[in-house]
Amino acid sequence: MVNKKIILIDLDGVLNKYTGEYQENYIPEIQDGALLFIKNLSQNYNIKLFTTREKQLVLDWIKEHKIEKYVSDVTNTKEPAWLYVDDRCVKFEGNFDQLTEQIETFKTWYS
């Protein structure tokens, strides 16, 4: 068996229709295209979801949206991974002045 590289994907704002209005016991519906995205990605990568939400709530959401066979785990820990996918991040490219500018002008895609 070939070890697949791990991709850690954020739940809110990436896989679901989150708009920044957090509700503790409710996870918004799945994003259009997210099921196919996860299915295709899982062929070559080990997919783990990253979230601060309660794990059982997320597991129920995964099952409801039929992606459980494509996701190997749910975690709230930044685990070692090949790549991280998140709606609230900037990529450091070796320049702190550029990074500061990115931080100061940052907006989520749904802002």
Break the fold down into its secondary structure elements and pairings.
Layout: E1 5-10, H1 11-15, H2 34-42, E2 45-50, H3 55-64, E3 71-75, E4 83-85, H4 96-104
Parallel strand pairs: 1-2, 1-4, 2-3
Give an overview of the whole structure:
With 111 residues, the chain is of the alpha/beta class. Helix content is 30%, strand content 18%. The chain has helices spanning 11-15, 34-42, 55-64, 96-104, and strands spanning 5-10, 45-50, 71-75, 83-85. The protein has a four-stranded parallel β-sheet with strand order 3-2-1-4. Strand 2 (45-50), helix 3 and strand 3 (71-75) form a beta-alpha-beta unit. The longest helix has 10 residues, at 55-64. It starts with a strand and ends in a 7-residue tail after the last helix. The model has no long low-confidence stretch (mean pLDDT 95).
User: Can you give the helix content as a percent range?
Assistant: 25-40%
Q: Measured on Cα atoms, how large is the radius of gyration?
A: 15 Å
Largest sheet: 4 strands, parallel
> What global shape is seen?
globular
**Looking across the biggest beta sheet, what order are the strands in?**
3-2-1-4
Query: Number of helical segments?
Result: 4
Bin the strand percentage.
15-25%
Give the gist of this structure.
The protein is an alpha/beta fold and 111 residues long. The chain has helices at 11-15, 34-42, 55-64, 96-104; strands spanning 5-10, 45-50, 71-75, 83-85.
